[in-house]
Amino acid sequence: MPETLVVLVHPNLKESRINATWKAALAAHPGRITVHDLHAAAPGGKIDVAAEQALVRAHTRVIFQFPLYWFSSPPLLKQWFDEVLGLGFAYGPGGDAFEGKDFGVAVSTGSAASAFRAGGQDGFTLDEILRPFQATAGFLRARYLPYHAFHGAGEPFTDEELAANAAAYVAWALGETPVG
Ligand SMILES: Cc1cc2nc3c(=O)[nH]c(=O)nc-3n(C[C@H](O)[C@H](O)[C@H](O)COP(=O)(O)O)c2cc1C
Q: Quick count: other Cβ atoms within 10 Å of Cβ 144?
């Protein structure tokens, strides 16, 4: 069984450049990474909670991958948290599914990296914007990883830049990047 589960949430993957490239790079490691396209797995927004919980149980590292939408995730991921992280599964008595697991966020942004700072275009760092994910990981007693990102989707960038970022993403998703 692969060690890393990537829950990929993109409402329009056919039009995606970054998340689709990331997905293809991850898919080259089927023995170690399970790529789970949530929109494909939950047609009409119907999440199979038991199946999602079984996927989480079967992996030791869970990565949530998505494009940043209004300083948050696309809504299906919020729904996943609301429905899958149930009492007795993720928290409360017997709720140990994430305990000790790595919990990471991989996010693409339209804004450039320089936008994410106090006084910059967006005014907040990505760490600040991702606090709800960090807080959730803490509540679940998981280990929150430093995020992986690709910035500047709204500006021109080369296939080579994206390929290098995707390679770094795969190494990070496999736990091969030192956390420091
Ligand atoms: C509804 C919507 C909201 C968005 N909100 C943000 C945002 O808050 N910050 C940002 O940097 N980019 C924002 N974007 C841009 C996306 O993050 C960007 O298009 C995406 O990361 C590109 O990845 P892809 O090539 O995989 O689609 C938004 C895009 C859409 C469609």
A: 18
Q: What is the pLDDT of residue 2?
A: 76
Please name the residue whose Cα sits nearest to atom 6 of ligand 1.
69
103 touches 145 (CB < 8 A): yes
Residue-wise pLDDT tens digits, 55-87: 999 999 999 999 999 999 999 999 999 999 999
pLDDT at 180 over 90: no
- Does residue 73's CB lie within 6 angstroms of at least one atom of ligand 1? no
Q: What is the pTM of this model?
A: 0.98
| Element (DSSP H or E) covering residue 34 | strand 33-37
Q: What are phi and psi of 139, to 5 degrees?
A: -60, -35
Name the β-bridge partners of 87: 91
Helix (H/G/I), strand (E/B), else coil: 56:
helix
Task: Quote the crossing angle between the two packed helices 159-173 and 18-27, to the nearest 10°.
Answer: 50
Cα 179 to the chain's mean position, in Å? 17
Q: Distance between CA 107 and CA 97 in Å, rounded?
A: 23
Q: Six-digit token pair at 17?
A: 């450049």
- In contact, 58 and 99? CB cutoff 8 Å: no
Distance (angstroms) between ligand 1 centre and the Cα of 9 equals 12
Please name the residue whose Cα sits nearest to atom 27 of ligand 1: 16
